[in-house]
Design a protein that fits this description.
Rossmann fold, Arc Repressor Mutant, subunit A, 40% helix, globular, 13 helices, three-stranded antiparallel sheet, 10 strands, seven-stranded mixed sheet, alpha/beta, binds S-adenosylmethionine
């Protein structure tokens, strides 16, 4: 149980960075009943805030009486930050942290570049903050089948590649760059990746952006999908996405990746559609995949489904057609 001083420090941090917070949200974040929080705020008479319409609003925080609010400096809006556990995270703080990490790994940022980039993302914001926060630590390396895929070396598609962190890891680990394609429905995160890694030239021609899936049938030996399925809002969209992966694979091709999944003990964080391990396996089966594996991992109160499936050989497909 946190001490009063710890609770107060956390609340002050929220108010300093976001200016205001709903009492219910603050109570949830501080893990105390809302009534206890209200009682404590009344006790802390020198705390610079007021409560109005269920919202705690930061009070004057400098001698001129101005309120110290600058939501534009935040990485994500406060409500979302609570869910992600990054209350108080600013664009400046998180970009500096991520860029320090990449600089230590060898990326050279010209003078003034960081400051300009921070200003750019304070304006535009980061579309997938969770992915950004984990840059340089790609999911693909944690997949149980990663070693097997690295040996494959055939044409590989990163389907919904985002920043491209996973294909950068693959190539760093020895996968031939000429065999790798990153595909996404917009440039937003791909551009963020280039902004952070400064490697646009090296990757020229390896990223494809199209609203419609542009690849013909039987193009790839491997398709990877990292954190895309849980961003699709309907069962139909999930089925479609998996069907396209199936179609783009050559016979005996591999589809593997990770998505957030559903388990009743861990309700979806953002009111999303999440599939259970069984449901995801069923969609793979209905699409035509075989050798289906879906491994469940619980981490930080979330369900991760690590999947792997294969497309049948031509012979297998013909046989199935005959049976059906
Ligand atoms: C949460 S991000 C994950 C990015 C990356 N795969 C990773 O693991 O870091 C989800 C990405 O999927 C992309 N996406 C969503 N729907 C898609 C679709 N139908 N086809 C291709 N990409 C899609 C989004 O634009 C976004 O870049």
């Amino acid at each position: 149980m946190p001490t009063d001083a710890e609770l107060r420090a956390k609340l002050e941090e929220i108010l300093k960075t976001s200016g205001e917070v709903q009492t219910a949200t603050a109570a949830r974040y501080l893990n105390i009943p809302e009534s206890d929080l209200l009682a404590k705020i009344t006790e802390w008479t020198d705390l610079r805030c007021k409560i109005q319409g269920g919202v705690i609003i930061a009070g004057p925080s400098n001698s001129s009486g101005e309120v110290n609010i600058n939501p534009s400096k935040l990485l994500v809006p406060h409500e979302f930050a609570v869910q992600l556990g990054i209350v108080g995270a600013t664009v400046e703080g998180e970009f500096n942290r991520v860029m320090d990490k990449l600089a230590a790994a060898g990326v050279l940022y010209p003078a003034g570049y960081r400051e300009a980039l921070i200003l750019k993302y304070e304006k535009t914001k980061v579309l997938y903050p969770y992915i950004f926060l984990h840059i340089g630590d790609p999911h693909i390396r944690k997949h149980g089948r990663y070693r097997e895929v690295l040996q494959c070396r055939g044409n590989l598609l990163d389907y919904g590649c985002g920043t491209g962190d996973d294909i950068r890891a693959l190539v760093a680990d020895g996968y031939p760059r000429q065999s790798v394609t990153g595909y996404d429905v917009n440039w937003t995160s791909i551009t963020l990746g280039f902004d952070l890694y400064l490697d646009q030239k090296a990757w020229a021609g390896h990223f494809v952006v199209d609203k419609k899936f542009p690849f013909p049938a039987e193009t790839f030996d491997v398709v990877y999908s990292g954190s895309v399925i849980h961003t699709l809002y309907t069962q139909k969209a999930v089925k479609n996405y998996i069907l396209k992966a199936y179609s783009a694979l050559k016979p005996r091709g591999i589809f593997f990746g990770v998505t957030l999944g559903y388990r009743k003990e861990f309700p979806p964080p953002f009111g999303k559609l999440l599939l259970s391990r069984e449901q995801l396996g069923e969609v793979f089966g209905a699409t035509g995949f075989f050798n289906i594996e879906v491994i469940e991992e619980i981490k930080e109160q979330q369900v991760y489904l690590w999947f792997y499936a294969k497309k049948l050989s031509q012979k297998g497909e013909n046989l199935l057609r005959q049976i059906n």
